[in-house]
Design goal:
67% of the residues lie in helices and 0% in strands. It is an all-alpha fold and 316 residues long.
């Protein structure tokens, strides 16, 4: 979905269900679930896990969680005004806390309340995501990798915890593995989206690394792909891969019905990193993408590995 169309849909939803919307009778649970389902499906390309791969009994709950995350992300990034975004994120958190008190009236929270009740999900992962979105409104540079990882702990890792709760497999050991996967995916996204993040005024590469390779803010501004940038990118790509591969044991610790989704998350991230390497780390000229054919090959390779189907050829 193009950015212009996404902003148009966000503006329409905000008018219908935002803080300035006319109050009326809340939607029924069925209507609210339909709304979340529609929201997830129209953003399908950004929500791999809510797909036909999921067992039917979990699909609606993943839609409900996704709808929460989609709204929060749009409130943070689609207003174009940090002050307005912060006010809207505060409103969204009030809606979240009302949901946990059994007083949700927004369609997302009417649907999400049922998911929270069914899977006994604590409020923390949802609230942590909002704290990261708030941070994006006033922090645009990170000095060290520890600072970046601290951001990932709130911007990405909560999603992995939510998946564990929905799979009814939450434990400290699994959470640590999920954190490694989600951090790796976030770091891979930072590598893939250098140009887009720069356009939004943000640099997620550690400033200490940038200085170490001699890549300056002026070079960022010129979108310069030189040897300093390639060295910097190589470090970030390798780091992301290490995090992703460290999370691989989680696949076999999940319910069989969710193993393929988790495997595709990991190997999809690794495929993005391969695409960056194929471009010789030049992410300024064009955004690295995984082709439809490669996605298909990844699917069959992950499926073979999980279901122990004998085959040769493409590997991950």
């Amino acid at each position: 979905m193009g950015r212009a169309k996404r902003i148009l849909m966000y503006s329409r939803d905000l008018q219908l269900y935002g803080p300035e919307a006319r109050s009326g009778s809340p939607l029924s649970l069925r209507q609210a679930e339909r709304y979340c389902r529609g929201l997830a499906k129209r953003h399908y390309e950004n929500f791999t896990v809510a797909s036909w791969l999921l067992p039917g009994r979990l699909r609606q709950d993943f839609y409900n969680v996704y709808a929460y995350c989609r709204w929060a992300d749009d409130l943070a990034d689609e207003t174009g005004d940090a002050k307005q975004s912060l006010a809207l994120l505060d409103w969204w958190e009030r809606q979240l806390r009302d949901c946990y008190r059994g007083q949700g009236v927004h369609p997302v929270f009417i649907a999400l309340a049922e998911t929270v009740r069914k899977f006994k999900i604590p409020i923390d992962p949802f609230a942590d995501l909002l704290s990261a979105f708030r941070q994006d409104q006033h922090v645009s540079r990170y000095e060290t990798i520890d600072n970046v990882l601290g951001y990932c702990r709130r911007s990405a890792n909560p999603v992995g915890h939510l998946v564990l709760y929905l799979g009814e497999r939450y434990s400290m050991e699994r959470a640590a593995l999920a954190d490694s996967i989600c951090t790796g995916l976030q770091l891979a996204n930072f590598c893939q989206d250098v140009a887009g993040d720069w356009d939004r005024g943000r640099v997620y590469f550690p400033q200490a690394d940038c200085r170490g390779f001699g890549y300056t803010e002026a070079m960022f501004a010129r979108r310069e792909c030189n040897e300093a940038f390639r060295g910097l990118m190589r470090m970030q790509v390798d780091r992301a891969e290490d995090f992703l591969r460290a999370g691989l044991p989680l696949i076999n610790m999940m319910p069989r019905e969710l193993r393929l989704d988790v495997s595709l998350f990991i190997h999809g991230g690794l495929a993005v990193l391969r695409a960056i390497r194929r471009q010789d780390y030049d992410v300024w000229t064009r955004r690295p993408r995984v082709s439809k054919m490669e996605k298909l090959r990844l699917f069959f390779c992950c499926w073979r590995q999980i279901y122990r189907v004998r085959s040769t050829g493409y590997g991950v």
